[in-house]
Amino acid sequence: MTEEYLSFGPFRLFASRRILEKNGQLVPVGGRAFDVLTTLAVKRGSVVTLSEIGRLVWPGMHLDVGTLRVHIAALRKALGEQQSERGFIVNVPGKGYLLASDAMLRRDPGASLAQPAPPPRISPRTRVIGREAFTRAASIQLAATHLLTLSGPAGVGKTTMALAIADEISDNYADGVHFVDLGLLQKADQIAGELCSVLRLSSFSDNPIDSVLSRLEDRTSLLILDNCEHLAPAVRVFVEAVRKRAATVDILVTSREPLHAEGELIRSVPPLKTPPLGEPLTAEEIFSFPAVELFVERASAQSEVFRPSAENAQAIAELCRNLEGIPLAIEFAAARAGDLDLGRFGEGFEAIYPMLREVRLPGELRHRTLRNTISWSYGLLTGFEGVVFRRLSVFSGDFTVEAACDVTGLGGDLGREIGAILASLIAKSLITAVGKGCFIRCRMLNMIREFGREKLDENGEAVLMYRRHAEFCVSLLEEAAAAWSDGVTSTWLEQYGSKLPEVRQSIEWAFSSPGDEQIGVTLTALGSVLFMTIGLIGEYRTLIERALEVNRRSPAPDRLADAKMHAALATIYHHSHDFPLGDETTGQFELSLKAARDAGSIADELRAISGLSAAYLFRGEHEKALTLQRDFDRLEGPDARHVANRTLGHSNHYAGNRVEAERRIAAALHPLDGNPQIKNAGSQFDQRQVTLRSTLANHLWLTGKLDQATLLASRCVDDALVANHPLSLCHALGTAAFPLVYLTNGPSAAAPYLALLTETASRHALYRWLRWAEAYEDVTSPDAIVRNRNDHTGLLSKIGIGGVLTEYTAVLGGEMAIDWVVRHAMNTTPGWCYAELLRICGELELRRSGDKAEAMKFFRQGLNLATSQGYDTWRLRCATSLARVLAETGATFEAATVLSDVMPLFAEGFESVDFRAARAQLAAVH
Q: Minimal CA–CA distance to 546: which of 528, 559, 565, 563?
């Protein structure tokens, strides 16, 4: 069978079957991303405009540039493009995208061997028995009401049914199904953090719920909230907010009790049907009942000797009736089937029947039935199995065999038996296995965990085990910090983000009685790698403040912990809307630096120095940032050199030291390109490849490499989107993509970047960057410019009285800028934009007084400074302004000479706003 396909590089694109291959291997690509790739490939190297992509891929819909960028980023990742490479997908700023490699239309005589990968699904962990009708009916009801609660006693199968429903209808949700286990949480104020973790969302707000709602409101998703009963009031408030803000998000809740939320439909999950008492039934009829079928399936899987037969059918039926048809209780019983005499099968369970008959209240019956069954199953464990079982109950979530050995304290010879014991506990349904092959993890269901912890208390082991668990969490956080490297945010979150409940539990235990406050201080300090990455800023700030106070009162304070906590607190102050960017931020970094030196921690000293530099730069104190070089000179080693180069690269750029900035940035990028696992001095709060390349983009732009600069700025945005790192994304947008594209290609080309900056900062509660977006809007929108000339208090509140934001807003405002903005921007020593500020002063002088001689003084000063700094773009701008006024005074030859000296310096950017203006001015004076 002959089939047409498009070939580019090592790839083959089969559009008709929606398959992409690389060297014969399937490359999974999402639906919209595949359509975008097909559109670019068909054009074979021609630019496809944004509007054309929208028309072909999103017909009849408004295409938001942020949406397109997410799909482009995903596509680049699928194609295996590296951040330092040009790659196949090329962004032409202000125009669109093209496929750089020529795509050839070919014919394949044989069909491709690769098959499309099925979309990821959420499925039940075990086969669902006897619930088919319930699943179908509940799926229909969820689609109709959009908020469905599955209620019922513990062990009746609420979670299993929720997963079965999700599996049934997952194709209806273009943005997927999100499963949130609230059973691991202890407090209502932790719900937002868990949602952020599941949604891979960072929020710097004290209350991240608003960020969660913003993320959900434009999605078509199913949200499963599991085990909600202990947090019902808070969950009710959340689901009602979701229904109001995100109409295309359906919510499926599992809870022992209804939420009583507005619009909630409640379905009680019934127990499995059991053979009725007193009716004469054949063995075949008995085995057809779902409860019996479940027992037989599980018992047969666990025991080689168990066989269902006419002789034991009645005993099994009686057992299932006495267990009320509760699936989990039946599984416990089935796990013991092989230990019983088949001839007297029912007698083996007689010990639990009196406990079942003790229950008199119908509402408590099934809950007590399950608990009694757990107690009975626990009583049959060997002594060593019982020890392991109750000690493992300290885990809040999943754990590995290695973690089980560490926490239970059963190392050495006993540790070699732990795998067999875990297998036995899994077989007895006291522990659930999650995963496959070498990646199996274990966990306890909530009610079993509660029972195990009670037994832990009864045996006097609780304090020891919770201490061991806390020590395990310390090691886990140290491992997480060591594993952190640039560009791996999503992968890192998948591995360590799920451990947040364990860390929370250990911190709360440590600060309780009879906990250990010093372990709590250590956990809190190390927790920055987790809390700050996920973005649980409000929660973490509260934890830090408590731990700092405890450490302050300690007779032997942990100075290393102080260093980490003060640095984290400084970062929180920097990004929080509650605090000004001033003494609070630098003060905390200075405290961190002192503590790091006291503790002898070079990594934390580097973090503090780097943080101080960033704070100085944002305040416009570029020379002060450069003075930190002497602090770097004290330190040795590759990490110190890398952080010094990175930090001083930023500092020298903004200070206007072109040559030194270029040297430092190149040196800082070199180890990142050559060794992506290089440590980043303990800083988990940014993606350094993005911020460093954003500064490089600015450097390229200033030196006249306009096309390279805008392309690199665009790639920085894409890299941050792929990494799902909002801080890096805002940095790339605010310091590079928007200003550089605006200055190069004009307002319309840059508008999507400003929209994305506003959206990202708002969604993630990054109020510092939201201020940048609002300030940019104020100086680039014609209406806002007029408004701010009359009343500049609003703009002043956004940009403060100096700093790098003031410099950017002055440059972007250009000749339409407001006088006082430019004056504030010039309150620093000559830096990266001082030549342009001088030019703007000349334009403002013309507008204010019409004095051409005075204006030309500013233009010449700017031209001379730009020439000495080597900033060809400012040089071109100053020359164009000077030539225009010279021509107006009749000095056309000098005007032509000024431009002719500068324009040949450019090898690219010929269609930029500045070069077109210079070309037009040169033509006018010839």
A: 565
pLDDT of residue 206: 66
Residue 301 or 559, more confident? 559
For the stretch 459-502, pLDDT in tens is: 999 999 999 999 999 999 998 888 775 444 556 777 788 788 89
Neighbours of 867 (CB within 10 A): 17
Rounded CA-CA distance 503/476 in Å is: 9
- Report domain extents, the chain: 3-108, 132-268, 283-377, 392-460, 461-557, 558-684, 686-765
Cα dihedral 788, 792, 795, 801, rounded to 10, equals 140
The helix (H) or strand (E) run that includes residue 372 is: helix 362-379
Q: pLDDT of 291-301, one tens digit each?
A: 999 999 888 87
**Does the pLDDT of residue 854 top 50, yes or no?**
yes
* DSSP H helical ranges for 747-815: 747-763, 767-780, 782-790, 793-799, 804-813
List pLDDT tens digits, range 275-315. Answer: 998 788 999 999 999 999 999 988 887 777 788 888 889 98
Kindly report the CA angle at 452 between 451 and 458, in degrees rounded to 5?
A: 95
Per DSSP, the chain holds a count of helices (H) and strands (E) of 47, 15
CB crowding 106-117: b at 16 or more within 10 Å, else e: eeeeeebebeee
The arithmetic mean of pLDDT across residues 546-553, rounded, is 96
The CATH number of 132-268, from 3.40.50.300, 3.10.180.10, 3.20.20.100, 3.10.450.750, is: 3.40.50.300
Fold match flag (3-108 vs 392-460): yes
Sign of CA dihedral 49, 50, 54, 55: negative
The packing angle between helices 583-599 and 559-575, to 10°, is: 160
Q: Give me the DSSP letters along 812-869.
A: HHGGG--HHHHHHHTSSSS-TTHHHHHHHHHHHHHHHT--HHHHHHHHHHHHHHHHHH
Look up the CATH number of domain 3-108.
1.10.10.10
Q: Which residues contact 791 (CB under 8 A, 6 or more apart)?
A: none
Residue 593 and residue 601: Cα distance in Å, rounded?
10
In the predicted model, is pLDDT for residue 869 greater than 50?
yes
- CATH 3.60.15.10 assigned to domain 558-684? The reply is no
Give the span between the Cα atoms of 663 and 643, in whole angstroms.
Answer: 14
**The pLDDT of residue 338:** 66
pLDDT band at 758 (very low <50, low <70, confident <90, very high): very high
Q: Which residues contact 559 (CB under 8 A, 6 or more apart)?
A: 595, 596, 598, 599
Give DSSP secondary structure letters for 519-539.
HHHHHHHHTHHHHHHHT-HHH
Is pLDDT of 118 > 60?
A: no
Tell me: pLDDT of 621 over 70.
Answer: yes
- Residue 450, classified by CB atoms within 10 Å of its CB into exposed (0-12), middle (13-18) or buried (19+), is middle
Is 543 within 8 Å of 213 (Cβ atoms)? no
690 vs 681, which has greater pLDDT? Answer: 690
Higher pLDDT, 509 or 124: 509
CATH class, 392-460 region: mainly alpha
Q: What is the pLDDT of residue 253?
A: 96
CB 544 within 8 A of CB 565: yes
Q: How far apart are the first and last CA of the chain?
A: 66
Q: What is the pLDDT of residue 575?
A: 74
Residues above pLDDT 90, as percent of the chain: 39
Average pLDDT of the chain?
82
Burial of 29 (C-beta count, 10 Å sphere; 0-12/13-18/19+): buried
Q: Which two tokens stand for residue 326?
A: 């509760």
Token couple for 329: 């209780």
